[in-house]
Specification:
It comes from Deinococcus cellulosilyticus (strain DSM 18568 / NBRC 106333 / KACC 11606 / 5516J-15). One of its GO terms (molecular function) is oxidoreductase activity, acting on paired donors, with incorporation or reduction of molecular oxygen. Belongs to the cytochrome P450 family. Its cofactor is heme. The protein has 392 residues and is α+β, with helices and mostly antiparallel strands. The chain has one domain: Cytochrome p450 (Orthogonal Bundle). The protein is 49% helix and 13% strand. Strands 1-2-8-5-3 form a five-stranded mixed β-sheet. A hairpin with a 4-residue loop joins strand 10 and strand 11. The two termini are 39 Å apart.
Length: 392
């Protein structure tokens, strides 16, 4: 059973509710829509990361150490253990005062102007928070945000003609060069002189090359900046549209607020698909059927489908209904932070900065219109822009 307190219907899913939880397309690629089926894949030891351009990056020369998002096996397990301290609740709590000061300053500026563009302010917040954790602190954060945004706007079509792929590659190299020269290189230089408690200092201490540091920064750029920006906006949108839920959020305990945010993220996952490549054979069970996945097969895991699986989340799967009665071991966001070896390490960080922002922003008297929404193929994500509103 779910609470009667609701926060509106889903806004971002482009897919119909599937009739099959496991299917295969004409190219031989597997598509997984069920929660338990997706978890079987994500927790398997015979799959490797195949999304976020992982298979292209693995082929790059000069990358002895793979970025955390693309590594697998013992190398990945060791790295995750080492960097876990940067994303633990205790460490994240240390950033609270920085987050509060940053958000207070931006909102004060907005109140003075009597208007706010949520797509802009959410990016400025997300970039500053992620930059502190990663160590990208030696350049202008707003200009860095623009450079990262340009990189993630690229087309991820795997079937594009060869000449298109070549032009795409060259364009991306230019974007990477600008990001490296203006943001990453100054951060490396500063930390070679004086290491700090951040990811760049950590990987430099492990002997990473400048190219390897760059790819790691791109990884955290996507995870910590681009996705959190969109979540801040979609959470704001739902709560602004539902006054009862907004009022409850503002008086709720932190635990209850996290449950509300988790439910919104379940309905509106920022990353809509995950991809894995089979490195061995595997039997996948679903609804009393067994599917034979073979080495070399590509598997697309549909996060929306997993998050809407009625066996896991119950009825009204496309409605925001806080405090769903979920199975033991399933958290409120369900599959929105992934699962298994590559589950997002920055989940708590994203939720905390979103909560700090909402507890301040939602108290402002605003008039708003729905934002423009487009889709980013590279990370299978919705993108909200021109989320403009008047204050007062």
């Amino acid at each position: 059973m779910t609470q009667t307190l609701r926060g509106g219907t889903q806004k971002t899913n482009r897919e119909p509710i599937p009739t099959q939880r496991v299917s295969r397309d004409v190219k031989g690629n597997w598509h997984i829509y069920g929660f338990e089926e997706a978890r079987q894949i994500l927790r398997s030891d015979v799959t490797t990361q195949a999304g976020f351009l992982a298979e292209s990056v693995r082929g790059m020369k000069g990358l002895t150490n793979q970025p955390v998002l693309f590594a697998d096996g013992e190398e990945h397990h060791l790295y995750r253990t080492e960097v876990a301290r940067f994303f633990s609740p205790t460490t994240v709590e240390k950033y609270r005062s920085m987050m509060e000061a940053c958000i207070d300053r931006f909102l004060q500026e907005a109140v003075q102007k009597k208007k706010i563009d949520l797509s802009d302010i959410s990016l400025r917040i997300a970039v500053r928070v992620a930059a502190q954790v990663v160590g990208l602190t030696e350049s202008d954060p707003d200009q860095m945000a623009q450079r990262l945004g340009a990189f993630f706007q690229q087309d991820a079509n795997r079937d594009a003609p060869k000449y298109v792929q070549i032009m795409r590659f060259l364009t991306n190299q230019v974007k990477l060069f600008h990001f490296y020269q203006r943001d990453v290189k100054p951060a490396i230089k500063a930390r070679m002189i004086q290491p700090r408690e951040d990811v760049i200092s950590h990987v430099l201490g492990k002997g990473y090359s400048n190219m390897e540091v760059l790819t790691e920064c791109i990884t955290y750029g996507a995870a910590g900046m681009v996705t959190t920006r969109e979540f801040i906006q979609i959470a704001s949108w739902h709560l602004l549209e539902q006054p009862r839920l907004k009022d409850r959020y503002l008086v709720a305990s932190e635990k209850e607020r996290m449950a509300i945010l988790g439910e919104i993220l379940r309905v509106e996952p920022v990353v809509g698909q995950l991809f894995r490549r089979m490195q061995g054979d595997m039997e996948l069970t679903s609804d009393n059927q067994t599917f034979q996945l073979k080495k070399g097969d590509l598997v697309a895991l549909h996060v929306y489908g997993a998050n809407e699986d009625p066996r896991t989340v119950g009825e009204d799967a496309r409605q925001v209904c806080p405090h769903r009665d979920l199975p033991r071991g399933v958290q409120a966001p369900v599959m929105s932070f992934g699962d298994g070896h590559h589950r997002c390490p920055g989940a708590f960080l994203a939720l905390q900065e979103t909560d700090i922002f909402l507890m301040r922003f939602l108290r402002l008297p605003v008039k708003f219109k729905a934002p423009q929404m487009t889709w980013v193929e590279l990370i299978q994500s919705y993108e909200l822009r021109k989320f403009e509103m008047e204050i007062g």
